[in-house]
TrEMBL record:
It comes from the Bacteria. InterPro entries: Integr_conj_element_PFL4695. Pfam families: DUF2859 (PF11072). This is Integrating conjugative element protein, PFL_4695 family. Residues 1-26 form the signal peptide. Keywords: Signal.
């Protein structure tokens, strides 16, 4: 009889846990961020399918690009109302945990001109580009073409704008400075 009552209690506790588990997952709260996050790919073995011929390689590349465009189409438009194209006043910072510089751009003429002028330096710095205002896949593709070989990701820059007191872009943020 005791085991039956115990089983009912266990079942009840499990049911309660399952009912309220989703509430614990609703919002992520970061307690500590050292700024030294490492990509998981460095710890995983490289798995690449063998390529038999050039035709197969180009077909695979084309299908991957098509898949990426479909994924991008679902994540666009990206807008950051806090940031608009314009002049940025340079300022010194101290962010020792920022190991890779970040530059912020949008799909606008000022950003395209800025990328053309600074592409070589950004490449030397291995800077990562955040496209914070972009409407279409075509605009993002144009930016990626202009910025090649730089890595660009389309993400909202609202938190960056708030954290660094930014109102405008294009801008480069390094561990020591914000500059245009």
């Amino acid at each position: 009889m005791k085991s039956g009552a115990c089983n009912i209690k266990i079942a009840f506790v499990m049911a309660l846990a399952m009912m309220y588990a989703h509430q614990g997952l609703a919002k992520l709260v970061v307690i500590f961020d050292s700024g030294k996050t490492q990509p998981l790919t460095a710890y995983l073995p490289a798995v690449k399918p063998p390529v038999q011929n050039a035709f197969q390689a180009s077909t695979t590349a084309a299908s991957l690009n098509a898949e990426r465009l479909q994924v991008l189409a679902h994540s666009l438009p990206v807008t950051t109302p806090e940031l608009t194209p314009g002049n940025v006043v340079p300022k010194n910072l101290s962010i020792p945990y920022l190991e890779r510089p970040v530059f912020i751009i949008g799909a606008d003429a000022l950003s395209l001109q800025w990328i053309q002028r600074h592409r070589e330096r950004l490449d030397t710095l291995h800077a990562l580009g955040w496209v914070v205002n972009v409407e279409t896949v075509a605009q993002l593709a144009q930016l990626k073409q202009q910025a090649s070989p730089l890595e660009l990701v389309a993400l909202s820059g609202s938190e960056l704008a708030q954290q660094f007191g930014l109102n405008h872009y294009p801008v480069l943020i390094s561990s020591a400075r914000i500059e245009q």
